[in-house]
């Protein structure tokens, strides 16, 4: 089999208005960086959108787009996919643009694209709420759907609502719509993808199943059926919806490819969850024309996507930074955190979700026998949770103090806002 | 003595807001007092025990509410247990299904509830989302504050058979009418999830005392006092801006 990446094409050159808007956006981003307010990606995007309405669509036009969405793992998967495609491009890596910083709303995407007007391939992390718009205006070639689980329920009241929007967008796009690379193990993802013209299914290995209890199509309670030793599929007793046979299957620490061959990725991002993410990225890259071995070589270079899993120095303490934004994220992150003590940082501003009820959906009991340092503005909520879990802990609300004076490497699991603060403290953003 | 049975009903349907926490809190608060308790988790398809002392219903989405009502009716043991003197504590969507009827979906389809509380739920004029605070009068006449987080689209109206559980200081509560939750015999409903019993140990102990038919010694905790102090101060500071 021979592999080839689609030939280079030139995206339309931006009009005068968009060029001016980009200059102003760059200026605003520069000022924002000087003021120490992060990368400025979002501000750049806002300025561009204000001065050149329609910029989102204009910037997407004429590019070959590979997008990644889902509740958890978007940033890492986007990095893996970008690395795979970049490896396939070899010397022509300048053809690729990606929003590597995790800014995944309209502004963040516009900002990244504005920085690379000549790149004809865009690998885009896309917020779940932006997927519909991306399909309608950007005509992506490949769209990766990772998973769907409860997240920030104070804002998104119904988990299924986003899936419904995806179905509508895919239905409207019809045959011209993207090829979907979708997680067959997640019933909500399967239902959300089932209006697409073409789907490449990936059977993943995920810890969290609490949000896949009911059939999204008919409301019946899903059953699990054994397909082979140690391998279950879900199935709806009430309607046709059932786990599709996948082309790519994650088994143990390997991925089975469509031809039956298995590969064992040498990933530098940890955990079974990331192997599943890698399988989805691999399927997308291969569909795009990258040879699997080249894609895997590229993915093996990814170490700390937007700071996730990064090890950083805080004074005399070395800390490994893990992000967990919702119960599914915690279910994946907690087993990775092996240090004693372990630092857990909790906040509940808008970006984290204002409701910390989810603390009771996370199995903190598994930390019994170790010492937890509870930190962040909502450390006290965590402390009460840990008391009921009978896990030893101390409360140190201040992040800097919580990190001070540990020997060895301490693992820190953090919700979104404290994670961003930690990256800043470590000089990683 | 036989261990006290705490029955956590259909987590896969009604467990979206950490509602499992209410069961964990009850069990631990018994264990810490040296009272043996068993947590029984029942999933749809398995029969509910009729021998439980406390049954717990949590929050969930529309489809899950309908599914839970149907299964609980078919099963029947929840009704038998309550007739036999068990306590039912239902929050959020669980509270709604405990009433006569509630609505689901964009077209406000009316669904018949379990009829265990004389309350009726219809789509509200706004969605209630945020920290809430209400005043609850304990059986001994003293007042206790209930701090929690509410997130519901339905507004609940109480009939003459049910009394409000508490009176709202901040938040929407039942229907922006100043009342929060409902009590009817040993059936108690409330909107805050949060989970509400973790933040309100006095309410947790009240449920246990009801179920055991006796008083319990207090379990002082400076950690819980501090959490309550923080949450009450935060909601009062944000106050009516919510
Ligand atoms: Zn079905």
Describe this structure in words.
The complex is a heterodimer of chains A (429) and B (242). With 429 residues, chain A is of the alpha/beta class. Chain A has two domains: 53-305, UDP-N-acetylmuramoyl-L-alanine:D-glutamate ligase (3-Layer(aba) Sandwich); 310-425, Protein-Tyrosine Phosphatase, Chain A (Alpha-Beta Complex). Chain A is built from 14 helices and 17 strands. The two termini of chain A are 42 Å apart. With 242 residues, chain B is an alpha/beta fold. Chain B has a single domain (4-238), classed as Class I glutamine amidotransferase (GATase) domain (Rossmann fold), CATH 3.40.50.880. Chain B is 30% helix and 32% strand. Chain B contains seven helices and twelve strands. The longest helix of chain B is centred in the C-terminal third of the chain and has 17 residues, at 222-238. Chain B is globular and about 50 Å long. The model of chain B has no long low-confidence stretch (mean pLDDT 95). Chain A binds chain B through residues 150, 153-154, 157-160, 210, 213-214, 219-221, 354-361, 380-381, 383-385, 387-390, 395, and chain B through 11-13, 15-21, 24-25, 28, 44-45, 61-64, 66-67, 127, 129-131, 149, 151, 153, 193-195, 198-199, 221, 223-224, 226-227, 230. Zinc ion binds next to loops of chain A.
